[in-house]
Amino acid sequence: MSNVDLFQTHRPLLFGVAYRMLGSATDAEDVVQDAWLRYSAAPAADVRSPKAYLTTIVTRLCLDRLKSARAARETYVGPWLPEPVATADEPGPERSAALAESVTLAFMLLLETLSPEERAVFLLREVFEHDYDDIAAALETTPANCRQLFHRAKARIAEKRPRFRGRVADKLPLVGRFVDALRAGDTDRLASVLAEDVGFWGDGGGKALTARRPVHGREKVAALLGGFRRLAPAAGVDLADVTLDVTEVNGEAAMLLRIAGKLDSVYTFTIDDDGISAIRVVRNPDKLQFLERQLADRRN
Asked: CATH for 3-75+105-160?
């Protein structure tokens, strides 16, 4: 098998590692491309296992990027959310339980509480099932230290780990009711599908209007959502140009809001037995470009 074919075989894995490490699909693509350039230029004698070699390159590139990302994150305007990706048609191992859970926005935000090294070890061991020797080589440390990092990360994750909640298909009818209520501007109906302690997070990055701080509670969130609809005409938005579509994003039920055909917002929903318990909305236009390309490719 040629280097190109070997690389393409491992590309989904490499993107998956980089995306979960960085929270940015755009940056993950850049890292994977950089990994290809380094892999293609490497002497054959240095590459005993293409998978391990490529994973090592991607992990190190991500660790370097995370160092510079930390400063940028501190000046980010409003809540920061990962860049959304479409997952409905992901094949094979990407549909496994561990991978499906690890790509949800709630879980990726939990990964943000770990140090870069803890995050790398946790993902490579828990999600992608690498052995400690390969992980140690990627981090240029010892297997014993990797075990310590893993157990520390796992303990921290366990404290706040969201409960993984069944199939997305089972949740779509509830999201459909949410969409109908939002379209009608009916705050009572909106409230009826929300859990009492529902939380709302909006990521506009200072480039799109949304709540600058998290909002909690059924009545407050319903009122906030109703307010968005009432303010649309004042912002120059003709409601006749707005379309709302239910789909899957980041392994969760989601709603895509388009204005005159252009993707404006992505709503992802965490759903418990009591209703929608969390709504995370990405409106920063820079974070919607990758998803828009994904959706366009699938249409074509």
From this structure: 1.20.140.160
